[in-house]
Amino acid sequence: MTHYRNLIVAIDPNEEDQAALRRAVYLVRRNGGKIKAFLPIYDFFL
């Protein structure tokens, strides 16, 4: 299995359970590395 050391995770502000973040935390704890959280915001005016 490939070991990723740097992960970027999209956070969904509409969901309480952040499955992608939970998985990223699991992988970083297991393999070491860093997580960057990304909060995508859709702008209706663009």
Strand arrangement within the widest β-sheet reads 1-2
Mean pLDDT metric = 91
| CA distance, first residue to last residue | 41 Å
Count of strand segments: 2
Give me the Rg, rounded: 13 Å
* Approximate strand percentage: 15-25%
Q: How many separate domains?
A: 1
Largest β-sheet summary: 2 strands, parallel
The best one-word shape is: elongated
**Segments where pLDDT lies below 50 for 5+ residues?**
none
Order of helices and strands: EHE
| Helix-residue proportion | 25-40%
Estimated structural class? alpha+beta
- The number of helical segments is 1
SSE arrangement:
Elements: E1 6-10, H1 19-31, E2 34-38
Parallel strand pairs: 1-2
Q: Explain this structure to me?
A:
- This protein has 46 residues and is of the alpha+beta class.
- 28% of the residues lie in helices and 22% in strands.
- The longest helix is centred in the middle third of the chain and has 13 residues, at 19-31.
- The protein starts with 5 loop residues before the first strand and ends in an 8-residue tail after the last strand.
- The model has no long low-confidence stretch (mean pLDDT 91).
- Residues 4-37 form the UspA domain.
- Pfam families: Usp (PF00582).
